[in-house]
Design a protein that fits this description.
mainly alpha, Arc Repressor Mutant, subunit A, two-stranded antiparallel sheet, DNA-binding
DNA sequence: AACTGAGCCAACCGCCGAGAC
DNA sequence: AGTCTCGGCGGTTGGCTCAGT
């Protein structure tokens, strides 16, 4: 036989915690420290499950927790880490002192995903939607294309709550994707001064290339299954540098058996000598020197500098430990605080620039990207 | 004032690996 | 060796708040 159960699940209190219960937890921990949580309810005089007590302490009562809003630097770090490792919230939270995985997860789900979407970036793959569309043209086989669009559509529906369209509308886009393909998204961005504004504009313009009737939300119909579940294997077999998997980023970079996320994330960053530890941490995470890898022409949003680079590191065929935290140079990273101070948030800046573009080119942009 | 829907977030659920028994 | 809980994790949900109608 195993251990006895920690509590009678049917008789413990659930739901929101009262200040009195919080006080009991705090008093208990301050007197006894953190030990066996199954004993805490009994010793602290709480009619709660030990697991519930642990969560309350971990997510709310811990004295080292921050309860204020996320800073732009934290936002950028979350986005870059999510791009690199996917929804491993505990690992991401470890890079953010005073934040819990629950905090990060909630912030991502309620704010950051929507921000990325407004920028025209798929929050799952961290790739521009226009690029995903162009990929559809590159992918041989109609099924794959359907799946890619399906993923995009899924996101669109999530963020825009669009009405369910006719399934046939999905098909109408494909004859037009030539227009997209002939206009590579990152081509101009890479050799420019890399202002993300260009990307934003480019992304918008690419959407505009398509018939507005087609590109409007109903285009992204849920006529097909999500690519994350059905097309990933197909897509990754293509092997073309211009082909991008529609998988979630964490699936895309599945670690080898010997790879350890915790070790990787906790590794020191000797090439950086920043004054403040947190800054050092943030910048270090964004450094490209962390792991050498195969280079691939993949657009890369650099939230630290506002650049959108075409160079990205992607591990191939599942064997890696090589991935990218953002293709910024160390020099760029060093300028990070400066950039952050001049612009409250990179993402906010993009949105602002996007608004300016709309004001400048109302005829072109209106209706093409609002949902 | 009442209703509705979106946004937010604390808490719960369910799974998994490690370890106790 | 097998069974079970603990602790940790990511995903999901319930309920509160607030703005809009």
């Amino acid at each position: 036989m195993g251990r006895p159960p920690c509590c009678d699940k049917s008789n413990v209190k659930r739901g929101l915690w009262t200040p009195e219960e919080d006080a009991k937890i705090l008093a208990y921990v301050s007197n006894n420290g953190i030990g066996n949580w199954t004993l805490v309810p009994q010793k602290a005089g709480l009619n709660r499950c030990g697991k519930s007590c642990r969560l309350r302490w971990t997510n709310y009562l811990r004295p080292d927790l921050k309860h204020d809003g996320f800073t732009p630097q934290e936002e950028d770090l979350i986005i870059n880490l999510h791009k690199a490792i996917g929804s491993r919230w505990s690992h991401i939270a470890k890079q953010l002192p005073g934040r819990t995985d629950n905090d990060v997860k909630n912030y991502w789900n309620t704010k950051l995903r929507k921000k990325l979407f407004k920028l025209g970036i798929d929050p799952v793959t961290h790739k521009p939607f226009s690029q995903i569309l162009s990929d559809c043209r590159d992918i041989s086989g109609f099924q794959n294309s359907q799946n890619q669009i399906g993923s995009l559509n899924k996101n669109m529906k999530y963020y825009a709550s669009v009405p369910t369209p006719e399934p046939s509308s999905v098909l109408t886009v494909f004859p037009n994707t030539d227009m997209i393909r002939n206009k590579p998204v990152m081509e101009q961005v890479q050799d420019s001064s890399s202002n993300v504004n260009i990307h934003s504009w480019h992304c918008l313009s690419q959407f505009q290339v398509l018939d507005p009737e087609i590109i409007q939300p109903h285009f992204f119909n849920e006529a097909i299954s999500s690519c994350s579940s059905t097309s990933s294997s197909n897509v990754t077999q293509l092997g073309s540098p211009q082909s991008y998997s529609c998988q979630p980023s964490h699936a895309q970079i599945t670690p080898s058996s010997s790879f350890n996320w915790s070790e990787f994330l906790s590794e020191p960053l000797p090439y950086l000598g920043f004054q403040q530890q947190q800054d050092r941490h943030l910048k270090g995470i964004l450094s490209p020197t962390n792991c050498p890898s195969t280079l691939e022409q993949t657009p890369q949003l650099n939230l630290a500098t506002g650049n959108y680079s075409g160079l990205n590191r992607i591990g191939h065929e599942g064997g890696f430990g090589t991935f990218d935290f953002g293709s910024t140079s160390v020099g760029q990273a060093n300028n990070r605080s400066e950039a952050s101070s001049s612009v409250s948030s990179f993402v906010d800046a993009i949105l602002e620039q996007d608004s300016e573009l709309r004001a400048e080119f109302p005829d072109i942009l209106d209706g093409s990207f609002d949902y």
